[in-house]
Specification:
Layout lengths: L2 H12 L25 H12 L7 H9 L5 H10 L6 H13 L9 H13 L16 H9 L9 H4 L5 H9 L7 H9 L3 H12 L3 H5 L4 H14 L13 H33 L12 E5 L3 H13 L2 E5 L8 E5 L4 E5 L8 E7 L4 H26 L1 H24 L1 H15 L2 H4 E8 L6 E4 L2 H15 L7 E8 L22 H11 L2 H11 L8 E8 L5 E4 L8 H22 L7 H13 L15 E4 L14 E4 L10 H26 L1 H4 L7 E4 L3 E4 L28 E6 L2 H10 L1 H9 L3 E7 L4 E4 L7 E2 L3
Parallel strand pairs: 1-2, 1-8, 3-5, 8-9, 11-12, 11-15, 15-16
Antiparallel strand pairs: 3-4, 5-6, 6-7, 9-10, 13-14, 16-17, 17-18
Helix pairs in contact: 1-10, 3-5, 3-14, 4-14, 5-14, 6-13, 7-13, 9-13, 15-23, 16-17, 17-18, 18-24, 20-22, 23-24, 27-28
Length: 785
Amino acid sequence: MKKEPIAATIRALSQQLPNNWPLYSFVTSNPLAGLENLRFDEAIARIRKDIGIDGYPSARFFQQARERGAIDQARLEQQLQDQNITLTVEESLLHIKELESQKTQNHLLGEVDRHMIKWLTVFLDEGSTEWGMPNRDSGFYQAWLSTARFDRRLPNRQIISSLPGDPLETIKHLTSPYHTEDLIPILRHHLFALPGWVGYIKFRTENPSDWQDAHPITLEDYLAVRLTLCSMLDTDFFPPPNPSEQDRKELDKLKLAWLTALERTYQDTLIQKVKNQALIKQNGTQTMPDAQIVFCIDTRSERIRRAVEKAGDYETFGYAGFFGVAMEYVHPEKDVHHKSCPPIIDAELKATEQIRTEDHSQAENFDYYNSLKKAIEKLKFSLKNNIPASFGYVESTGFFYAIAMLIRTLAPNLVHRLEHFVSEFIGHPEYFSDIILSTESSDRSQILNELSTSKKAEIAYSAFNLMGWDKFSDLVIFAGHGSQTANNPFASSLDCGACAGNKGRHNARALANICNDNNIRKLLAEDYNIAIPDDTWFLAAEHNTTTNHIHLFDKKVPDTYREQVEQLKENLRTAQNYANLEQFDISDGNQKASRIEAGRRASDWAETRPEWGLSGNASFIIAPRALTANLDLEARSFLHSYDWQKDIDGQKLEAILKGPMVVTQWINNHYYFAAVDNEKLGSGTKVTQNVTGKHGVVQGNGGDLKCGLPLESLREDDNLLQHLPLRLTVIVYAPEERVKSIFAANQETLGKLVENEWIYLMVLDPETETVNSSLWQSSTTSLAT
């Protein structure tokens, strides 16, 4: 067998591997990506053959949802009938419990798995140890060949000396005794044997980074080593036989009926809300608001947008939180660069900081304290990892660490305030520098030139164009978002998914700078017919999703706007109080208690649930704000601004559906599968997790690398789910024919998501005042029904 078919087979199989992003840039993504050409239930059955997942919620969860009123009795009875299930509701739930009790036990790690995990752990380490695996710069396969020959725990080590130097040649050599048709099941079995580790290898190969450049690893490397270990340990290449699937199919059928009833119960309430809102006629003339604020489409923005609009005369918009600036940010505090745009697009730009002439002294102050901090951290790392010095380090610093932990435990809000004071004293790049956007070479090592004025104008136009926005108030704010937590390996999962698991503040700053440039404003007016008034000023901000504080980066604001900005700050503090009372469920209206609770959650090292992130997400609404204003959507809806009257050819809507909507579907599926099977598609409880290699977590002292959210991001306690796992409901406020034509033109991508029931699609037609939902109901109904 030639190498080319083997390489092609590996590439094809890799498209079905779950993605596994590193902790420092944790992005929620559909773990079943690549299977959208199958129906949702078929994809679950397909992946179960490889890694044995539970693809649906448990009987215990369905019972909880029913007790909460989240499943309508009539809806459930209808679903059982539609699935030709003759059992009553009670009988069906009891039967689900019986079938669940008969499930086979989870597959335990074998000897090959344990050896693979050992070698992957040491090779993929990203700076947690002083001594790295030898020869890592040669790649995983070559490094293993040179080192494993000295591992006395491995039998038959003489096999290593007979192997080719090329991993594909090794795979070809080891599989040569088997028939050609055996190749796919063999490679599939071994790729999916450790889906967490292999998913991270896939991430490394698809996302260039300094670590991958220095220590390359490929799926071919992994397979060559694994198959060699099978030979050395005399383990069969073939997967073990699957148990009978008959009971499993019956269980899936029952659970799918319950799941669909749960989803349609949610839709009934949501649809009624937006239908009623759609019937409210808007006034023909409206005065300009005091300020306009653009938030990310993130579900957490839904709550803060309501609060901001309640606190003052403000208009809010929803736009993907990278603000259309597809960039890689060079971080001056951490000496690293990270992607700051959605995973589905390339970071075409590099963003660097340029110190403003008048702020050099503040920049020097920042550099001094930042250098001091890095030196201390480097010293601590060396002492902790140097065996002789570590004993003295513990003896000399243990007392002070104990005091610090005690203070964080007993007075976390005080720590939060102290951290804020120190942070303000040292400063941030936002205070003394500006974002400079440049294009770069393909090897990411050389900045070529600063982005042209015309390209910057395109970025600004794209933002205003997609949102259908052409009238500007005196102040316009782009508010990125980020979270604040302590002792949390999954901190980046709470940051902006549109910024690849990073904070969106720098993208907001970049767009604000662009829009304040008079040359760009001139181009926008001449080439794109977007007239920004001379007295409009753009500001960047960051929404802290843990505390709901909105921090304005207002250092450069002209004095003529200062009074307006100060009033805005005061109203944003009021909005923060409104949002916190709701978020923390403080029913007596005690605003001081809400502020203390927010500070505690941000700084308490023992808080396993600092905030809920995107837990609860269930719908994506593409519409003008008028359709959702004043509606309490319980922070469960992604909201993207869109004006159908300013999009005659449908290009704007198509861009939203192919971009932000697809990303939200990934997020929705990630939360869904982590909730229904946290062991295989989540990461278990934080209590017993250990960080490995700085890039991932394992449970206990080893095992497969975890690839999803921890239990604490999904459950209120060990048993009660906070996140109700539902497939995404997409609501589009636009003419029905326009939506149909977009899905028809993109049948193999968008169309498959609807046809194969990965999402629900509902269209509210403003011209005919009708509702049409291809999966929700079979007929079209009037909005007034």
